[in-house]
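Lab meeting, action items carried over

1. Structure of the four-component assembly. Owner: GW. Status: complete.
Input record:
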Amino acid sequence: MDTKQAVTALACLAQEARLEIFRLLVQTSPAGLAAGEIALKLNMPSSTLSFHLKELSHAGLVKSSQSGRFVYYSTDFSTMNALMAFLTENCCGGKQDCCPPAEAAGEEK
Amino acid sequence: MDTKQAVTALACLAQEARLEIFRLLVQTSPAGLAAGEIALKLNMPSSTLSFHLKELSHAGLVKSSQSGRFVYYSTDFSTMNALMAFLTENCCGGKQDCCPPAEAAGEEK
DNA sequence: ACTACATTTCTATATTTATGGAAATATAGA
DNA sequence: TCTATATTTCCATAAATATAGAAATGTAGT
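Predicted assembly:
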């Protein structure tokens, strides 16, 4: 992931409505939710939701699949993964400090 | 860190100029740099830089300390830490998947 | 106090982004 | 085809954000 992609992904999550949408999809992962269900749960006009879903899709943070009249959205974890790696590397000095995974390997600095 | 703080921090980093500033400060951590040095390195007008530094300060991502006529800026890792924790918890389903052990550079799933 | 330099605030402007109603599009069933 | 429902696109408007020159402020040395 390069800087531009990171900025796009960050900008996507840096918006209350979109962060809510994304968190909801994380919670319901991997099944996902139809657009209408999201709109209902978050009490959001469909056009506004559609706008945000497009942004999230464009940033690669969510993926969609049509099923009949419904469009299901779900988290694309690979992008979130890449974003976390980018931040760890570029914004945490590569230090484990910023990434507390409670790992077993025992490497310490 | 609550949602509002997370959105503020994310919005701060979701801007090319600010991300550059922050990365530069991470690289020069923990010493930090004077505002003028940053402006020089990034070739940025001082007023523009000052605007962005204020944003970063307000988000708690950087801290400053005056020394004579210079104001030194440096990374506040505790906020970045909290942001990473927030993302891991809320946007990665609490899974380790999103928080790779940093040593596996080119690992692909 | 005066000068030099560092940084911030003021100000205006340009640009981007968010919102939501209305219309259009897509899908399925009778 | 007609109708009902799901989702998206179109559009206008409102709001937030970025940029940078000019002026103001702060700090130190003479």
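2. GW to write a short summary for the group page. Key points so far: Residues 11, 15, 17, 45-48, 51-52, 55, 66, 68-70 of chain B lie near DNA strand D (CB under 10 Å from a C1'). The first strand of chain B starts at residue 33 and ends at 34.
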